[in-house]
Design brief:
The complex is a heterodimer of chains A (about 425) and B (about 325). Chain A has about 425 residues and is α+β, with helices and mostly antiparallel strands. Helix content of chain A is about 30%, strand content about 25%. In chain A, strands 9, 12, 15, 16, 17, 18 and 19 form a seven-stranded mixed beta sheet that branches. In chain A, α3 packs parallel to α4, α7 crosses α8 and α7 crosses α9. Chain A is globular and about 90 Å long. Chain B has about 325 residues and is an alpha/beta fold. Chain B folds into two domains: about 180 residues, Thiamin diphosphate (ThDP)-binding fold, Pyr/PP domains (Rossmann fold, 3-Layer(aba) Sandwich), CATH 3.40.50.970; about 130 residues, Rossmann fold. In chain B, about 40% of the residues lie in helices and about 20% in strands. In chain B, strands 3-2-4-5-7-6-12 form a seven-stranded mixed beta sheet, with helices on both faces. In chain B, strands 9-11-10-13-14 form a five-stranded mixed beta sheet, with helices on both faces. In chain B, β2, α2 and β3 form a beta-alpha-beta unit. In chain B, α3 runs parallel beside α5, α9 crosses α13 and α10 packs across α11. The longest helix of chain B is centred in the first third of the chain and has 15 residues. Chain B is globular, with a radius of gyration of 20 Å. The chains are: A alpha+beta (about 425), B alpha/beta (about 325). At the A-B interface, α3 of A face loops of B.
């Protein structure tokens, strides 16, 4: 029996995928589990595996084409099987429903399915994404009319009504934050570059964070002279350890979240009611800049990992991130994030929260600065750390207290080795 | 303007219409010597005599039928049912005769008849005496259903009802009789089929009539304190319905709550919401909310009765839901 090959949903934010190339030609034999094609998602380039054995009878989508998740891209069948009826019915296939459909003979599929453990908020996000994929956006008629009249791009509006329904106030929120009307420029003065999958995902995600999540920011200068001493000692002692500043910051953030867990939270809806979810585990996302975007691999269970483990894992994840080879579970599910732009000479900056996380720490460059202490001006090395917080979940008091704990850990860095 | 009760305004309207047109007469149980079970006909027997203020036996099908016959031969009867619960006994007369004769006679015979009396629940009158039957009557082509909420409206609409050439179901409210309000001193008639915005607002339209209007006006005051400006619209007539007025308001606010005392299933709000979904589809920001009496026979126990009838809390909750505040 013939079996459809569909564009799978390989990450929970994936809406469409680009078929980079086919590994198999029409007429070639295929075993379940073989790599059929290479697919670019919004986050990574991944292999699409066959979930049925037979012959790749039809290629329906050619290399280079972008298609929505759930689109049938090919057909696997027996060598002489009649595919006429199947191909005729192809147009009526409902997109998202066929993702990772099991093969007829019950063989294990290569498709990924969404991890139900991730909770109600993620499910809601998935439902919203699924609705978008089906071309069905839940929106009140008034909001739809308003958006049409004002020319608001509905893909940028986050629905706050029940089930993610876009209602009037959501369109108004976008209108309120929109900039002044665009000045018309002639076509010679610019060039439109189509968005990569990753760029599209970033554009949507940051809009969905910054508009509805009420950010606030607290900053603090932290002396890092002793931290740098520790770092060089670690590298030079026999049996030593090569760590980056980011590794030390991750370890320090994990310790601070352990000692002051009030920031390891999410503001989200559970069973229809808003709650502050306190996480028992600490998963820290580390932002990695790429040529055309960024990705945030997650170091899981930091509460149970020593500096050596964090440094090792971080190196491997960042390496894979740069090759765009991260698996979805490697860049989702963080409870806190860290972004370090120090290596670019940035003094300080503030980052956008990745929902449903409640905080992200932005770290600037280490600089020598004159400091007045006890009536004397001395020179010390310091960095500026800026914490962005979701004000629905956290207040200035908690942000300040956490930053204080974090500062003391970095300024007395021996703790990074013993805890 | 003069301040008076709903009961006094109605009495005045009856008196003025009987003085204006000697074909108008009042008939029903205890309307004469006893001056009306709710004292609506106070002083009328003394003023117009027993030929025009007629006490009847306790037999609704008979005296409603007599009223229909009188209307057919050119009089303009006003039939008082002690409450609309008892009009159920006369449903054959009302539905099969009053509502049909003009059509079945090819327009040769009109039935200019008003059937009036109190409807809705009061206090602990239990399942058989607490009916809100307006949707039942409004279901029938050929009947007009009028439900005024204020002294001014009851007087103006009663005059229009008496002067209309069709059978009118004129439902008052037992608990409305003592309600006071300003009534113009000069002669006025309020046309049947014209509603009124009782309170202008911009955030949500609340549609309510009869007794529920007073509940909703109090809710609108409360909502105003938290910055929600509700527009309260009283259709005053259930059939014909002032659709354009309701549509205009909902187009302005984008949200609608319909409040009625009667049962939810096939209620007046079912029809209004169906019309509004059709006419205002592109204007709605939220599904229309309905606040109704619960779909049960009215319990006798005071606490249960209270939970069946729409409350301020339920109206507020419905409003907040349309504003996505819940």
């Amino acid at each position: 029996m013939a079996s459809k090959v569909v564009m799978p949903r390989l990450s929970d934010t994936m809406e469409e995928g680009v078929l980079i190339r086919w590994y198999k030609q029409e007429g070639e034999a295929v075993e379940a589990g073989d790599s059929l094609a290479e697919v670019e998602t919004d986050k990574a380039v991944m292999d699409l595996q066959a979930f049925a054995s037979g012959v790749l009878r039809k290629i329906l989508i050619q290399a280079g084409e972008a298609v929505p998740v759930g689109t049938v891209i090919g057909v696997i069948g027996a060598p002489k099987e009649d595919l006429t009826t199947l191909l005729e019915h192809m147009v009526s296939v409902e997109g998202a429903a066929v993702v990772a459909r099991p093969a007829e003979d019950g063989e294990k599929t290569g498709g990924r399915t969404f991890d139900a453990e991730k909770g109600a908020a993620m499910e809601a996000m998935v439902e919203e994404e699924a609705a978008r994929e089906r071309g069905r956006l839940k929106i009140s008629p008034l909001a739809r009319r308003l958006a049409e009249e004002k020319g608001v791009d509905l893909t940028l509006v986050r629905g706050t009504g029940p089930g993610g329904r876009v209602v009037e106030r959501d369109v108004e929120a976008v209108l309120a934050t929109a900039g002044p009307a665009r000045v018309e420029v002639s076509a010679e003065e610019y060039e439109d570059q189509p968005l990569s999958q990753m760029r599209k995902a970033i554009a949507r995600n940051v809009s969905q964070s910054k508009a509805p999540v009420p950010h606030f920011y607290v900053s603090r200068a932290i002396a890092v002279g002793r931290l740098l001493d520790l770092k060089s000692q670690l590298e030079t002692v026999p049996g030593g350890l090569k760590v980056t500043i980011t590794d030390l910051l991750v370890k320090a953030a994990a310790l601070a979240l352990g000692q002051y867990p009030r920031l390891n939270v999410s503001y989200l809806e559970a069973e229809g009611k808003p709650v502050i979810r306190h996480y028992r585990r600490i998963h820290i996302g580390v932002a990695v800049g790429l040529e055309d975007g960024l990705i945030t691999p997650v170091i899981r269970n930091c509460q149970a990992k020593d500096l050596r483990a964090i440094a090792g894992e971080s190196r491997a994840l960042i390496d894979r991130a740069r090759k765009r080879a991260l698996l979805p579970e490697e860049y989702t599910g963080a409870t806190f994030s860290l972004s370090n732009l120090g290596m670019l000479g940035v003094e300080s900056f503030s980052a956008i929260i990745v929902p449903p996380q409640a905080a992200v720490l932005a770290v600037g460059a280490i600089r020598e600065v004159p400091v007045a202490e006890g009536g004397q001006v001395t020179v010390r090395k310091e960095l500026t750390a800026t914490l962005s917080c979701d004000h629905r979940a956290v207040d200035g008091l908690q942000a300040g207290q956490w930053l204080d704990v974090f500062t003391k850990i970095l300024e007395n860095p021996a703790g990074l080795l013993v805890q | 303007m003069t301040e008076m009760t709903y009961r006094e305004a109605l009495n005045q309207a009856l008196r003025e219409e009987m003085e204006r047109d000697d074909r108008v007469f009042l008939m029903g149980e205890e309307v004469g010597i006893y001056q009306g079970a709710y004292k609506v006909s106070k002083g009328l027997l003394q003023r117009f005599g027993p030929m025009r203020v007629v006490d009847t036996p306790i037999t609704e099908p008979a005296f409603v039928g007599v009223g229909i016959g009188a209307a057919m031969v050119g009089l303009r009867p006003v039939i008082e049912v002690m409450t609309f619960n008892f009009a159920i006994l006369a449903l054959d007369q009302i539905i099969n005769h009053a509502a049909k004769i003009r059509f079945m006679s090819g327009g040769q015979v009109a039935v200019p008849l008003v059937i009036r009396g109190p409807g809705g629940g009061a206090h602990q009158l239990a399942a058989q005496h607490s009916h809100s039957l307006e949707s039942l009557f409004a279901h029938v082509p050929g009947l007009k259903v009028v439900m005024p909420a204020t002294p001014k409206d009851v007087k103006g609409l009663f005059k229009a009802a008496v002067r209309d050439d069709n059978p009118i179901i004129f439902i008052e409210g037992e608990l409305l009789y003592p309600v006071r309000g300003q009534v113009p001193e000069e002669e006025y008639v309020i046309p049947i089929g014209k509603g009124e915005v009782k309170r202008p607002g911009k955030d949500v339209t609340i549609i309510a009539y009869s007794k529920m209007l007073h509940l909703v006006m109090a809710v609108a005051d409360d909502l105003s304190k938290e910055g929600i400006e509700a527009e309260v619209v009283d259709p005053r007539t259930i059939r014909p319905l002032d659709i354009d007025l309701l549509v205009g308001s909902v187009r302005k606010t984008g949200r609608c709550v319909i409040v009625e005392e009667g049962w939810r299933f096939c209620g007046v709000g079912s029809e209004i919401s169906a019309i509004l979904y059709g006419r205002c589809f592109d204007d709605l920001d939220a599904p229309i909310e309905r606040v109704t009496g619960l779909d049960v026979p009215m319990p006798y126990a005071r606490n249960l009765e209270k939970s069946v009838v729409p409350s301020k809390e339920r109206v507020v909750q419905a409003v907040r839901k349309t504003l996505y505040m819940e």
